[in-house]
Write a structure and sequence with these properties.
This protein is an all-alpha fold. It has 13 helices and two strands. It has a two-stranded antiparallel sheet.
Length: 323
């Protein structure tokens, strides 16, 4: 990046904590660290349970395992750097590192959005076509779905850092958030960034917009099928299987859409709203998804209870063996 006014190279961005609360950053780092530890433990536990349980080989649990892996990577791509900012006042981030973080954040967000669509499709097939469930969602079909999600995320997100790389940054280099986002960094450029704006909007519509449309369509068909069932108990049981997924969709899309809208408005008068929304967007889904699925999914809840009792029994045996 070349500063046109001073002819010096600007090679870093300045990350922002929460303005006005700098004296509390050290203390705010502790709840953030606790959230990160819970998110890592919860998602690793979900992956471990699904991987070790022979009865959790259904497509629903395979997609849930992928969702937990993406959540784990998404939290890890931002949280250590945020803790460095809050605890050690490490505000500078190298330009190339910032570009890498931009790619991984947006790439993993696109992956999570695609997995949520796959999970909605899984629930649609399970409820609307239960007799054809195993013949439609075969292992090869799941593999193709995963490959499509991965290819789409890579193809659409690789241009984001490339488009930023071409821009000169000769003014302020202070970012809004505690991490790097494309829509945040492009506003600091001192050249025409309309290509970035248009492409960023295209990515949002092509990924989040289309995905949300498919998820909504799936649930319209699911609700229609459930309402056609005669026993009320069957209606409740059928729709309860979707509760965890609906919560995951709301937790992911509401802050994401809000953050995208706020960054395209003049938010100078909105105080710290973009900062708080950005933190919610990246920290809350990895934290809540394991809790939501652990509570609402009976098979995972049963496996967790068995695992907990097994550990207690093992500790008792070890205690008795060593008087």
């Amino acid at each position: 990046m070349l500063d046109n006014e001073t002819n010096t190279s600007t090679s870093v961005f300045i990350l922002n904590g929460i303005p006005g609360l700098e004296d509390l950053h050290i203390w705010m780092g502790f709840p953030l660290c606790s959230m990160y530890i819970i998110a890592v433990f919860g998602n690793l536990l979900i992956v471990f349970i699904i991987k070790t349980a022979s009865n959790l080989r259904e497509p629903m649990y395979i997609f849930l395992c992928l969702l937990s892996i993406v959540d784990l990577l998404l939290a890890t791509s931002t949280m250590p750097r945020m803790l460095g900012l809050f605890w050690f006042d490490s505000t500078e981030i190298a330009f190339d590192i910032c570009l890498m973080q931009i790619f991984f954040i947006h790439f993993l967000s696109a992956m999570e959005s695609g997995i949520l669509v796959a999970m909605a499709f899984d629930r649609y097939v399970a409820i609307c076509h239960p007799l054809r469930y195993t013949s439609i969602l075969t292992n090869s079909m799941i593999g193709r779905i995963g490959l499509i999600i991965l290819t789409r995320a890579v193809t659409l997100m690789v241009p984001l850092p490339i488009l930023l790389k071409r821009l000169p940054f000769c003014g302020s280099n202070v970012l809004t958030h505690s991490y790097c986002l494309h829509q945040d960094a492009m506003k600091l450029a001192c050249a025409d960034n309309h290509v970035n704006i248009v492409y960023g909007l295209f990515v949002i519509l092509a990924v989040m917009g289309i995905d949300l449309l498919f998820i909504s369509l799936s649930y319209v068909l699911i609700i229609k099928a459930v309402l056609c069932l005669s026993p009320e108990e069957a209606n409740f049981r059928s729709f309860r299987t979707c509760a965890a997924h609906i919560c995951a969709v709301l937790v992911f899309y509401i802050p994401l859409i809000g953050l995208s809208v706020v960054h395209r408005l003049d938010y100078n008068s909105m105080s710290h709203i973009p900062i708080h929304m950005g933190n919610v967007y990246l920290l809350v889904p990895p934290l809540l998804n394991p809790i939501v699925y652990g509570i609402n999914t009976r098979q995972i809840r049963v496996r967790f209870v068995k695992l907990f009792h097994w550990k207690r029994a093992t500790s008792r045996v070890c205690t008795n063996a060593n008087p």
